[in-house]
Request: fold
Amino acid sequence: MNLLSQVICKPVTHSPPVRELAQQLGVNRNTVSSAYQRLSKAGIAITQGRLGTRICADLKPGEQEGATKTELFDLADGSPSKAWLPDLNDVAASTLFNQYLYGEETILPHVEEYGRNWFKGACPQNFKITLCNGAIDTLERMMAAHLVPGDKVVVEDPCYISSANAIRLAGMQVIGATVDEHGMQAEALEAALEKGAKAVLVTPRAHNPTGVNITQERAEEIKSVLARYPDVIVMEDDHFSLLALTPHYSVIPPTTRNWAIYRSVSKGLGPDLRMAFVAADRESVKRINTRLAPGMSWVSRVLQAMVYTCLTNDKFVQQLHLAKAHCAAHRSTLIQALKHHGISLVDTIDGLNVWVPVKQDSQATAFSLTRKGWLVRPGSSFDVDTKSEAIRVSIQKIEAKTADTFARDLADIIRG
Reply:
């Protein structure tokens, strides 16, 4: 068993000091010190100065987004409503499929052209297009292409559950940059970058959980910060693009060497049509495509054909427009009900959730709501470095009567 394995297998929370462990194992102190450094860089251990080195707990998937088995009225589920999504049988019946073999082009030409047109004006020039299996798959592939375990990644604080989980499971360190009503704060981003972060993940629209959109002014502020860090990888998760009502303001400066903007279709077409259009610099696309090479894996061309049908067929395009309208109406209904009962919050235009400040412990508030029959997500589920005194309420099941009852119950809890 090598030295790293012996350290990891120690059944203690804190590993012994370098001198003590070297004596126990009969090796040079420099060897033990080097082993601790490797563990720290890999994200397996955390060095705490005089407090010693602590081996991190086993990685776990953490909380998951989506429906919950509960008898409560579920307002924690961040999924779109099934009623807003296209019938997959209709989609299949309207789609022309072809059989392909190994070695053939892995991206359908008309799908690539659609993606190229979709990103025109939204990102730096001379971009390339590729496809991945959804937003989280894109994030994981970008990290695999450019980062190593132990690297630090800046995310919004609070942060989308699945993104934070994916970064941690890849062995990276998550650093939070606080969010206000205009998006990630530029000052918080700069402070995080000064800690040695190698990458930044930003949500330009419908930030989950808060629902805020990055304004044009804030985008320019973030660009100004990132321009001073050209080697930092910048990723924009524009996951709500198909249903967004607000414009997309990119934060990527022309000086950034490696970057990606990705637009998943899951929110508008359904989770099983899991595909993301990715616009990125040439080197990033080259590295992603190398891992998606023919003979290994690629985004199914059957899936590509169905997604293309949904994005271009008049019937399904009209359904997307209706989904936008339904989403906006449900969100507005909930926000107005909350305000009617004296609960102040920031108006949001996009997203499947409403972020409600409660000015008290979010877990306690969520528990009190369960006693009244409601299930919501406490802000603590999304916290990175700060503590949220807020809850996230999903809107797809909201109707006028439901919204009023929920808002009244929440107001009673807040007032004590």
Q: What stands out?
A: The chain is about 40% helix and 15% strand.
